[in-house]
2-dehydro-3-deoxyphosphooctonate aldolase
Amino acid sequence: MADLYQASRSGPFILAGPCAIESREIALETAEFLAGVADRLGLPLVYKSSFDKANRTSVTSFRGPGMGEGLRILSEVKAATGLPVVTDIHHPEQAAPVAEVADVIQIPAFLCRQTDLLVAAAATGRVVNIKKGQFLAPWDMKNVVDKVRASGNDRIWLTERGSTYGYNNLVVDMRSIPQMRAFGVPVVMDATHSVQLPGGLGGASGGQREYVPVLASAAVAAGADGVFMEVHPDPDKALCDGPNSLPLSQVESLLVRLKGLWELNRA
């Protein structure tokens, strides 16, 4: 992708990969598979995976390999596949070193109002993908966008990932898609975290991956510019967010459906 942000403004795109970096082997296997699918379908795809999942349910939950090893693996993914990559940051001081590898800096939903984190991400000049907090209305994200723009960076994506609905449950209001697009930024639908059941397994989060195609399709029909999906070669053995991750075997058929919906929307 010559200019990732301009490409995202002119056509649909995908962010996909395992929740956390589990190993070099799984990262490369998944990235090579996704690169092949993206090439066959002609869809821009950004490989996503986290070097640290800092908001896991339990203190014993797997978090990832850490920043140093995680960035090394992401660099290898880029070299092997040519895919751009996106990963999360949790602290302002992580922004600059992560930007040396990542094409997109992602702000986790629980941290979307953290001004210092947003300013540091903006200063890298990278695309900044900000997850909408489960506790915020879509129009509240205008203040978040303004923080990044005021810091000199207009390369912003906003990601819908559901809103807290009672206990251990999320719901998606599809009106949020056009409401956030009205800020003049591309909007992404996180179709896998939105089917998460936070803390629903007691010591871990549950999920309902059977609804991922439903939410992804509805969001594209509502005008979403991109779709975010956690995928894994064997979700039932994934070390993070397996219950709401898609198996690789289901990815291409879903993207074929989404591509058709995007084409209908833009006809």
